[in-house]
Specification:
Length: 367
């Protein structure tokens, strides 16, 4: 679910930055590409080497410490103003600023530049804790700060800076690794549904997107408003997400207050959910992941509430058969009926009972 995607760099400023890089008074030569780094400060992960470039992950513009990346090449001299580096992270390639060495801790040179930088979900490091709870999608540390703090204490190391590094978050049910045979590339041959290259999902998700494209082809409302749908951020590495959540838990912050989840499986980590946005005829996103109030100004020719209704009707009808997270207007998933005790909804209930979306799991409401 997209609850994990709303974290902003400001949170890290408020909480303090993890300092991983060692200090030394001896000048060191620049590393040779490719090499691995661990972020010590939030950095934008962009589609082009420019501050004007778009972001690789929709709704997750900034990679947060201690994210790990593989730097492949630079646009200019390292650690000089204006220099960007091409980088790999979680199976995606993009660009980050590499004009400030203090923003990252440099690791060893890499001999496998194409390998994913995220921890495979099936790998359980030595000393890893065990998940003691389950949710609808797989393993979980639980629903309380007490239970998840105990879990994260075993998964993380406390740093002298007061931050935390969490290398021992284990895999488990619902935490699919990128190499899982259950994950396939999203289709890119659809007419009204646009997907990002490299995004993955389960067959259930892919079939749902094909049904959506067919439904849109015959929709009078789609023709009236001349909109398309952009789908992104379907499968997401649940190990990486859980490491971030443990980081905050070890700082005494409940991840749910930061629009995140508790460590464990989610619809995204199981490949069953996507962030879905309605794009108007002018290319504007009418349902962005930042829209959390009834009067949200999106810059689109279609107002937020109308666009959300159109998206609900397109996604949750009996043919497409998705369901929406009732506190996020952009999060849809496939699999399972809407229950009275969960946080999902279908049209027209999404707007009748759950408007406006709160954008936080604290806003989850029973039916």
């Amino acid at each position: 679910m997209s609850i994990r995607t709303g974290l902003f760099a400001a949170s890290f400023v408020a909480l303090g930055v993890v300092a991983l890089a060692p200090t030394t008074s001896v000048a060191q030569a620049d590393p040779s590409f490719p090499f691995d780094v661990t972020l010590t400060r939030a950095l934008g992960f962009r589609t082009s080497p420019s501050l004007e470039g778009g972001f690789v992950f929709s709704g997750r513009n900034y990679l947060q410490p201690p994210a790990k990346l593989k730097l492949l090449r630079a646009t200019g001299p390292l650690w000089r103003p204006g220099t960007f580096c091409e980088a790999e992270h979680a199976g995606k390639t993009g660009y980050i600023r590499c004009d400030d060495k203090s923003a990252m801790a440099v690791g060893a040179a890499s001999t496998t530049p194409t390998a994913p930088t995220s921890t495979p979900a099936q790998t359980n490091p030595a000393g890893a804790p065990q998940y003691k709870s389950k949710n609808s999608f797989g393993v979980s540390c639980g629903n309380t700060m007490e239970a998840c703090t105990e879990f994260c204490k075993q998964a993380c190391d406390i740093l002298p800076s007061g931050g935390a590094h969490c290398p021992r978050v284990p895999g488990g049910e619902g935490l699919l690794p990128e190499s899982s045979p259950l994950l396939k590339d999203l289709p890119r041959d659809l007419k009204y549904v646009k997907t990002d290259r490299g995004d993955k999902g389960t067959s259930e998700t892919i079939e749902g997107l094909r049904r959506l494209d067919a439904w849109l082809a015959s929709s009078p409302d789609r023709a009236k408003y001349n909109y398309t749908v952009h789908v992104s951020n379907c499968w997401r590495d649940g190990i990486v997400d859980s490491q971030k959540e443990c980081y905050f838990i070890m700082k005494g912050k409940d991840p749910r207050d930061l629009k995140l989840a508790m460590p464990g499986a989610t619809p995204h980590s199981s490949g069953k959910a996507c962030d879905v946005h309605l794009i108007d005829a002018g290319g504007k996103n009418a349902v962005p992941s930042s829209a959390c109030t009834a009067d949200a100004q999106t810059g689109s020719s279609i107002d937020f509430k109308t666009a959300s209704r159109l998206l609900d009707e397109a996604m949750t009808n009996d043919k497409v058969n998705a369901q929406r997270l009732n506190y996020e207007a952009w999060h849809y998933e496939w699999g399972g009926a809407v229950r009275d005790d969960d946080c999902r909804c279908k049209a027209p209930e999404c707007q009748q009972k759950f408007w406006p979306p709160s954008c936080t799991p604290r806003g989850c409401k029973a039916h």
